[in-house]
Q: What sequence folds into this?
């Protein structure tokens, strides 16, 4: 009786706590989604659920003259997809090389990758700006893709290498005995086996450009070249008309694809996070 | 016996590719010769200018001059462009020297083979050799070049800036020149009262923030994970997905939304407080409350990650440990203290340190939520919640105090690098990697 009672109390308390935490987690998301359907412009609203619903803010995003949401969406998609593809390839190359081959200066190369990844990113922006300027690449999407992709190995190599290290090397050796070249081993053995990790890497490299507003704001100078994040940042900071509900609608559209990807791929995310720092 | 190796090496030293031609490696020789001639031509034209630019940083800024009787503004030397162009040329020159050295060594080795009566590799064989035996190095070339020019070069540039006086208001090209000043920026940072006060104030808050942010999210995550994984809790998957939502929303969005939620006048949080008859709180405008707010919001953002991690560790703890503890009559709390917590801590310690380092540099959270505000009067361009990184951002992009920002950047970097290298060198993926399999 006593134990049963205690168990019931424990479970009830746990459920109550979980419900409170869950509300805390959902509330901001729910609030912004509902606000995006609310008529009017203001931040203030009498209740969480609006009295009437409207789609006008979403229409305004795509129709308005000052807001080129459709163009920005395509720009962002283009930049994110290309930097994801190139970046993932570069990460795979570096991590395969450092995981499978022993060569002079390898441990040092690993430490260098680790250390370089820790520099505050925007400290290099002045230099990048001048460099891109002298290459005549300012205000182009190519510049964004090059810089994002070139930076990818710094963030991803150690994680990817941690994962590749767990693929038994006996597989490579067996293939080698059968006369496979290094490139064949990479394509036929390593690539298929590291699919989950490649997905994780691709996802993180996709999200980075999607939400980056600091570097994008510096490089992309004209409105029709902007990305979503820059546009949103501009909307937040242009003080002349604070249009909260429009901001809400833009936020929902920007967050939606990423949020869905994350929720569906959550298993991979855990694997990815633990692979880089596995202590075994 | 002919001394092929010496002849080949000397020829290659005279000009790239000549030694290879001498060794009858025709295709390789011609390619190297072309590369060598073009590089030499380029460096003869540019190297002197580059070094001059790096050393002097320009001799005359833009100035007024009489042209055809009219006074006109004439563009002078742009110190920063000179510095960066010089840097790029020097990096390319270093690459060229490495290539040159490799070319001499290669000719020498091929000559040695010839002395032994072996024909040196033809072009096809060379390519095969590179792809089979130097695979790693050739695979790494492309990423390495990218990193060299888009990461290493900017970092060297930034480090150099700390030793110049490139700063608003008096030393901004193109109107003015920039000069080397040695360690003056660093001494200013410590010795000038206004700067050192800000620096140590911001540094203290950065460390307090990093510790609090890491500890709260970590133990919050442990707590939530344990709550869900308890025996008897149903719909574990549903809870998990709900609690993962904050992690799934991009921070750019969620933090800007939070900024509006905590708005003192119209935000819903104060609205609820007023509804219950309480005063609304100055969440983002009071120095102390703003600090509380950033910690709380960081918990919202960070707990899901820790929760996921801890949950994955929980599934790996062997069940028989708990059974043994049950036999010995351990209570639930004892089991947690002796089995669960040590296991979690042991497996996630590296992540914990990574998160700590990440929090020191947690730019997004502060910048998007408070932008470092509220402003503190006697700080140099910093606010109450500013971390070193966000202060750095303001100094660079808003105030153009580049040299000071670079000096601070170097200091932050050294703090974080120490932590991370220490941490990484301890992990198994670095130490015993050949033993895993």
A:
């Amino acid at each position: 009786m006593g134990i049963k009672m205690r168990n019931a109390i424990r479970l009830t308390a746990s459920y109550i706590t979980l419900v409170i935490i869950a509300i805390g987690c959902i509330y901001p998301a729910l609030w912004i989604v509902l606000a995006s359907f609310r008529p009017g412009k203001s931040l203030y609203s009498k209740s969480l659920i609006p009295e009437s619903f409207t789609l006008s803010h979403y229409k305004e995003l795509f129709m308005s003259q000052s807001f080129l949401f459709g163009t920005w969406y395509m720009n962002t998609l283009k930049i994110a997809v290309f930097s994801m593809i190139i970046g993932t390839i570069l990460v795979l190359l570096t991590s395969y090389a450092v995981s499978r081959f022993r060569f002079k200066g390898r441990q040092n190369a690993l430490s260098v990758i680790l250390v370089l990844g820790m520099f505050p990113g925007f400290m290099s922006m002045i230099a990048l700006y001048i460099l891109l300027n002298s290459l005549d690449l300012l205000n182009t999407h190519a510049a964004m893709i090059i810089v994002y992709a070139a930076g990818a190995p710094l963030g991803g190599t150690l994680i990817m290498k941690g994962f590749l290290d767990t693929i038994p090397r006996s597989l490579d050796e067996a293939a080698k005995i059968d006369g496979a070249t290094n490139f064949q081993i990479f394509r036929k053995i390593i690539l298929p086996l590291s699919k989950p990790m490649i997905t994780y890497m691709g996802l993180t490299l996709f999200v980075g450009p999607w939400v980056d507003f600091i570097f994008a704001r510096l490089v992309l100078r004209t409105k029709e070249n902007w990305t979503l994040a820059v546009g949103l940042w501009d909307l937040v900071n242009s003080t002349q008309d604070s249009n909260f509900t429009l901001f809400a609608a833009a936020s929902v559209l920007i967050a939606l694809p990423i949020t869905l990807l994350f929720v569906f791929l959550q298993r991979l995310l855990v694997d990815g996070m633990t692979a880089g720092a596995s202590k075994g | 016996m002919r001394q092929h190796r010496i002849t080949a090496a000397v020829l290659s030293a005279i000009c790239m590719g000549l030694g290879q031609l001498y060794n009858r490696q025709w295709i390789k020789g011609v390619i190297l010769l072309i590369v060598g001639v073009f590089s030499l031509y380029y460096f003869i034209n540019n190297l002197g200018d580059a070094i001059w630019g790096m050393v002097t940083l320009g001799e005359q800024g833009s100035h007024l001059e009489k042209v055809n009787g009219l006074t006109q503004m004439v563009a002078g030397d742009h110190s920063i462009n000179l510095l960066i162009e010089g840097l790029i040329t020097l990096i390319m020159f270093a690459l060229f020297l490495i290539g040159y050295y490799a070319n001499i060594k290669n000719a020498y080795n091929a000559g040695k083979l010839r002395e032994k009566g072996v024909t040196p590799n033809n072009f096809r064989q060379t390519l095969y050799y590179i792809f089979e035996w130097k695979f790693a190095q050739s695979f790494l070339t492309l990423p390495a070049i990218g990193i060299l020019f888009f990461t290493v070069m900017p970092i060297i540039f930034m480090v150099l800036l700390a030793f110049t006086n490139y700063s608003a208001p008096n030393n901004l090209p193109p109107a003015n020149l920039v000069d080397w000043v040695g360690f003056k920026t660093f001494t200013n940072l410590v010795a000038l009262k206004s700067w050192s006060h800000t620096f140590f104030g911001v540094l203290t808050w950065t460390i307090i923030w990093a510790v609090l942010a890491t500890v709260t999210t970590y133990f919050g995550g442990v707590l939530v994970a344990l709550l869900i994984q308890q025996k008897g809790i149903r719909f574990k998957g549903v809870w998990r997905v709900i609690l993962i939502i904050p992690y799934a929303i991009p921070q750019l969005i969620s933090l800007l939304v939070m900024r509006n939620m905590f708005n003192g006048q119209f935000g819903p949080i104060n609205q609820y407080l007023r509804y219950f008859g309480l005063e609304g709180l100055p969440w983002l405008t009071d120095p102390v409350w703003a600090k509380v707010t950033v910690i709380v919001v960081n918990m919202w953002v960070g707990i899901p990650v820790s929760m996921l991690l801890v949950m994955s560790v929980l599934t790996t703890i062997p069940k028989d440990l708990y059974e043994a503890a049950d036999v010995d009559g351990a209570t639930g709390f004892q089991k947690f203290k002796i089995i669960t917590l040590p296991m979690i801590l042991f497996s996630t310690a590296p992540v914990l340190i990574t998160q700590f380092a990440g929090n020191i540099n947690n730019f997004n959270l502060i910048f998007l939520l408070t932008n470092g505000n509220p402003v503190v009067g006697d700080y140099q361009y910093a606010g109450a919640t500013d971390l070193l990184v966000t202060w750095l951002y303001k100094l660079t992009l808003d105030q153009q105090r580049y040299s000071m920002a670079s000096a601070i950047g170097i200091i932050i970097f050294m703090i974080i690098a120490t932590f991370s290298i220490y941490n990484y060198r301890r992990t198994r993926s670095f130490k015993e990697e050949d033993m895993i399999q």
Remarks:
- Residues 200 and 269 of chain A are 6 Å apart (CA to CA).
- Chain A has 13 helices and no strands.
